[in-house]
């Protein structure tokens, strides 16, 4: 079957990208996107540049964007991108409506990963990706490794905690789709935070306290916007957002840490909902940005915002926030949830 493949080409770091379209004979139900790129490279255009190594979802080299989503070219079957109607017509079987050429030429669009500079065609410069990874110190601490004269054994339950994060093959797909990385160059990214959880949860590591304090700072867990993209694209079920949430829980449970603004933000939301059944915005800014009148600089920073809100008629005044009608039920639900979490 003939398919159309539109590839983003870029000759060098500084040149302007263009799109080039190839027509390729393919079996969409057995060919991967990587097979198609090989067909183009071997049969039509040897100048097309892309990375690959294992061809088997192991090395993480072939990360790229396919029809607008990052993933591994060696994992994705071409048919995955062509929708129900296409699958219905081409997936074989005895019915005459099946196993026939579709009435349209299906198109794949292949582009390099985002949030990293392009070196050439589909190859990106991963330097920032690796630098961000090193910021979380992604190794079990050397000091712990030197302690034991015998094997440092783990129980199956202790090992299970690390399983999801340990699957990461550092392909970059999550980083490419990360909304926080797109707007904040210093955000370490989902891959780094998944590894951060991996070492933080490892009972052989003796730097847990320092790690939790480090990951509580700017550009680590609290800068994630929880867009969920990393969980959706990860080819090996690392589910980085879930790992980020686990680090956040460890931070919130650590009574020795000085309360940071993100922690105060969460505690205040819970406190206000428990109090009145919703978030009273007239108190929220004072409590979080002004740290309950303890941070005078924070209070001062609210004054221009307050004036703008008054001028636009959007100032939240305390008398507008009466306790919600369902407050009794909300309080009992909140108490039940908080009690359960503290067990
Ligand atoms: S977390 Fe998943 S998507 Fe991100 S680098 Fe690791 S394997 Fe790739
Ligand atoms: S959930 Fe957070 S870390 Fe994951 S892609 Fe979105 S912003 Fe990035
Ligand atoms: S070539 Fe190794 S993961 Fe795709």
Automatic annotation (TrEMBL):
The protein, known as: succinate dehydrogenase
UniProt key word GTP-binding: no
Names of the cofactor(s): [3Fe-4S] cluster; [4Fe-4S] cluster; [2Fe-2S] cluster
Family membership noted in the UniProt record: Belongs to the succinate dehydrogenase/fumarate reductase iron-sulfur protein family.
Known EC number: 1.3.5.1
Enzyme class at the top of the EC tree: oxidoreductase
Transmembrane segments: none
Gene3D superfamilies (UniProt xref): 3.10.20.30, Alpha-helical ferredoxin
NCBIfam families: dhsB, PRK05950.1, PRK12577.1
MF GO annotations: 2 iron, 2 sulfur cluster binding; 3 iron, 4 sulfur cluster binding; 4 iron, 4 sulfur cluster binding; electron transfer activity; metal ion binding; succinate dehydrogenase (quinone) activity
Domain of life: Bacteria
Pfam families membership: Fer2_3, Fer4_8
Organism: Tumidithrix elongata BACA0141
Keywords of this entry: 2Fe-2S, 3Fe-4S, 4Fe-4S, Iron, Iron-sulfur, Metal-binding, Oxidoreductase, Tricarboxylic acid cycle
Entry's Gene Ontology BP terms: respiratory electron transport chain; tricarboxylic acid cycle
InterPro entries: 2Fe-2S_ferredoxin-like_sf, 2Fe-2S_ferredoxin-type, 4Fe4S_Fe-S-bd, 4Fe4S_Fe_S_CS, Beta-grasp_dom_sf, Helical_ferredxn, SDH/FRD_Iron-Sulfur, Succ_DH/fum_Rdtase_Fe-S
Pathway assigned to this chain's UniProt record: Carbohydrate metabolism; tricarboxylic acid cycle
2Fe-2S ferredoxin-type domain boundaries: 1-93
PROSITE patterns per the UniProt record, alphabetical: 2FE2S_FER_2 (PS51085), 4FE4S_FER_1 (PS00198)
């Amino acid at each position: 079957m003939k398919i159309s493949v539109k590839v983003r080409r870029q000759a060098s770091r500084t040149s302007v990208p263009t799109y080039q379209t190839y027509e390729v004979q393919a079996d969409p139900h057995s060919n991967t996107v990587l097979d198609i790129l090989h067909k183009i490279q071997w049969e039509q255009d040897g100048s097309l540049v892309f990375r690959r190594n294992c061809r088997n979802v192991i090395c993480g080299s072939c990360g790229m964007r396919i029809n607008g989503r990052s993933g591994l070219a060696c994992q994705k079957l071409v048919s995955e991108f062509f929708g129900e109607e296409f699958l219905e017509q081409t997936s074989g079987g005895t019915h005459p409506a099946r196993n026939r050429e579709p009435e349209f030429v299906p198109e794949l669009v292949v582009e390099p990963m985002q949030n990293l500079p392009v070196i050439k065609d589909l190859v990106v410069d991963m330097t920032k990706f690796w630098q961000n990874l090193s910021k979380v110190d992604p190794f079990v601490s050397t000091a712990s490794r030197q302690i034991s004269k015998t094997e440092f054994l783990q129980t199956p339950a202790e090992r299970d905690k690390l399983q999801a994060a340990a699957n990461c093959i550092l392909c970059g797909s999550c980083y490419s789709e990360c909304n926080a990385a797109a707007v904040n160059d210093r955000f370490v990214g989902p891959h780094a935070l998944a590894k951060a959880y991996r070492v933080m949860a490892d009972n052989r590591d003796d730097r847990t306290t320092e790690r939790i304090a480090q990951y509580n700072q700017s550009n680590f867990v609290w800068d994630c916007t929880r867009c969920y993209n990393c969980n959706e694209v990860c080819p090996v079920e690392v589910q980085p957002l879930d790992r980020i949430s686990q680090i956040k829980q460890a931070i919130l449970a650590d009574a020795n840490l000085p309360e940071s603004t993100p922690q105060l933000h969460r505690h205040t939301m819970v406190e206000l909902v428990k109090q009145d059944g919703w978030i009273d915005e007239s108190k929220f800014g004072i409590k979080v940005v002004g740290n309950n009148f303890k941070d005078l600089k924070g209070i001062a920073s609210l004054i221009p915002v307050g004036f703008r809100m008054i001028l636009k008629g959007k100032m939240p005044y305390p008398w507008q926030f009466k306790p919600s009608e369902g407050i009794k039920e909300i309080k009992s639900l909140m108490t039940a949830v908080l009690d359960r979490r503290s067990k």
